[in-house]
Amino acid sequence: MGWKILEKKFLNPDQTLYELVIAAPDIAKKAKGGNFVILRISEQGERFPLTVADYDREKGTITIVVMKAGKSTTELSLMEVGDEILDFVGPLGKCAHIDKYEHPVVLVGGGVGIAPIYPQSVELKEKGNHVIAILGARTKELIFWEEKFRALDVEVIITTDDGTHGQKGFVTDRLRELMEKQPLSQVIAIGPLIMMKFVALLTNGSKDLPKVPTTVSLNPIMVDGTGMCGGCRFLTLDGQTKFACVDGPDVDGHNVDYDNLMARNSRFQKVETERKEEFDHKCRLMAQADKLNAEGACED
Ligand SMILES: Cc1cc2nc3c(=O)[nH]c(=O)nc-3n(C[C@H](O)[C@H](O)[C@H](O)COP(=O)(O)OP(=O)(O)OC[C@H]3O[C@@H](n4cnc5c(N)ncnc54)[C@H](O)[C@@H]3O)c2cc1C
Ligand code: FES
């Protein structure tokens, strides 16, 4: 028996971004912001990690938001409501540290990283914090869940690189403005490594800006997700080797060697691209065969 897909929704017109609600009562009982799950679609499938984007303890569901990146995330996007995922393991990783802070807490979500800042925003609000969410993407179509964040009564700032929605520019431009205006207690940033690197540089204290404690969520290659394989190891700036799956994925953003992690993450790019091309080719052939069958072209 697998884990049933209860709801499926594409979040942008290109259908590269999608949301799935999965029946997983045991995981929903314990999940918190910062946790992730590891999936395997089928016997031949690879294991891949996705962050818990929402949970409903009463309904027993976990929501995930996925960006099509390669073979597995594309294959998952082809599954429909009622289909079952073979393995869905979690909650894994440390949950986010949630406290009541004196000053506002700013959550920065970049791209698909908008989803994982949602449960942390809920939990911070429940503790009575002033929460500001900066949602950033390349363009308007890639901003999602804006209404869901507004319904939490958090301050929402939208930013797009091309200015098609909200303010034009990067999330770091908006964060800088907030830092210049008021003291902040915490910054939590989730998104592409390069975005998290620049958020951490901005909040690390300089002659014109104060230092603000900053958490980032690391996304190295993961295999087992339990600290056994070493695939997710990363270097801290003070020279330690840590494992994102058990020491994180949420870690101190000021103590990560981002350049080393970016280099490690790109190591399998060639083989991943080849696998995705093979998969796309197979899909095109199957679609073509379906079309020919429908037209009766295969009949004698
Ligand atoms: C803790 C964690 C949480 C994540 N949460 C989300 C999420 O909520 N939504 C989302 O869309 N993506 C998330 N990711 C990234 C997601 O796991 C990858 O996009 C996915 O594994 C890509 O697989 P693929 O076969 O589609 O693409 P591939 O072609 O195999 O890879 C595309 C890119 O995805 C990354 N990747 C591939 N395999 C893995 C792996 N086993 N572990 C980590 N990264 C990998 C690599 O950077 C690679 O370049 C998360 C990653 C981690 C580590
Ligand atoms: S994923 Fe294997 S040690 Fe972290």
Shape: globular
Q: What is the CATH first-level class name of the largest domain? A: Alpha Beta
Give the low-pLDDT segments. Answer: none
The value of Rg in angstroms is 20 Å
Mean pLDDT: 90
| Main sheet record | 7 strands, mixed
Number of distinct beta strands: 17
Helix content: 25-40%
CATH architecture of the largest domain: 3-Layer(aba) Sandwich
CATH superfamily grouping of the largest domain: Nucleotide-binding domain of ferredoxin-NADP reductase (FNR) module
CATH topology of the largest domain: Rossmann fold
Number of domains: 2
CA-CA gap between termini: 41 Å
Tally of separate helices? 9
Structural class: alpha/beta
How are strands sequenced across the largest beta sheet?
A: 12-11-10-9-13-14-17
What report would you give on this structure?
With 300 residues, the protein is α/β, with parallel strands linked by helices. The protein has 2 domains: 3-92, Elongation Factor Tu (Ef-tu), domain 3; 105-265, 3-Layer(aba) Sandwich (Rossmann fold), CATH 3.40.50. The protein contains 9 helices and 17 strands. Strand 5 and strand 6 form a beta hairpin. Helix 5 (171-181) runs parallel beside helix 6 (193-202). The mean pLDDT is 90. The structure holds flavin-adenine dinucleotide and FE2/S2 (inorganic) cluster. Flavin-adenine dinucleotide is lined by residues 36, 48-51, 64-67, 69-73, 112, 115-116, 219-222, 249, 265, 269, 272, 276.
